[in-house]
Amino acid sequence: MKFDFIPSKALIDQRAIYDNFKLVQNLHPKKKIFVAVKADAYGHGVREVCAPVIKAGAAGFCVAYVDEAREIRGFGFNNLILVLGASEAKSAAIAQKEDISLTAPSLAWLQEVVKYLDSTNPNKLKVHLAIDSGMGRIGMTRIEELEQAFQFVQDNSDKIELEGMFTHFATADADDEYYHEQQKRFKLLAKGFKQKVKYLHCENSASSLLEEDDDFTNSLRLGVALYGISPFIKPQKLEQKFKPVLSLESQISFIKKVSKGTKISYGATYTAPQDEYIATVSIGYADGWLRRMQGFNLLVEGEFCPIVGRVTMDQLMIKVSKCYSIGTKVTLIGNSGSKKISAEEAADFAKTIPYEILTTISRRVPRIAVNKIEE
Ligand SMILES: *Cc1c(COP(=O)(O)O)cnc(C)c1O
What we know:
It catalyses: L-alanine = D-alanine. The protein is an alpha/beta fold. 27% of the residues lie in helices and 26% in strands. It is built from 11 helices and 19 strands. Helix 1 packs across helix 3. The longest helix has 16 residues.
């Protein structure tokens, strides 16, 4: 569907993407960076994100599904794309054809996948072996299985090629003891594995901000920090250099002066304590602005205005100090005047993490690139 009459929009600052990428690349000058653009680039719009990161020097992309990788191929990017999840075996045929790298979570997965591969295709399926060093999601935990997986790849070298090996951390965002244990386990397994792999990677955003550049791994996977969001549970100094990429805006679609005692929205949970102005904004939970944001403040012309009454599917109401005209901009995430609302603040209010706030912004909200970096 084309959305020509939806006043809500997510503005994507491509210059901020470029600068955030460079900050991480400067911390790790020796490493190749794969940018996590799964879930429509964390809700930012994959197309709007891919171009500036390639321009900034990204070596490739990480996604969750083969379909997401195909979308990127469709835009004409021929960089490495790694699918991070345990892909359906039959998707391997497409991955081979379109030169999409897959994660091998087990020996059994490789044995199943090989059935779908074409030995007459000069492109082999590229795989990255996943090591489960403590995340408990996917991957191999024993050196024997890694060696067997490697042997299996060798035995099927007409169809498969080993391109990388990696692990994923569960608690890098907390920088705790468990994180250091996981690092040790990964190092032990990666050292025990005798073969040289082209790409060895373990760092996500949090870990890449914590660690100095080293020679043990030669690549990393950058996600949330690229989007200017802190990866840490407790904010740290370094992140202040990162610029938020996404702003979310909508408009006042209706305004009225209500008298004391007037009730607002489903459940009539809000009663006006005095005569006041109530504005209706064209955004709701179907756009990704969660129902539990009731009570949170939005910005109108640099002034905080609370959401009153329940957030409905497509509209919500705010209490405003004057009779704004229809079409007045409302900022849900971003700057207005001297004030600002961050995705982190919205997440704290909703008792979730910024990743969820951002990826929940629905397809109905157009993503519009600003401060453009030309392709
Ligand atoms: C999503 C994801 C990343 C990126 O994580 P951030 O915390 O956003 O940097 C890296 N690796 C894997 C396996 C992932 O699933």
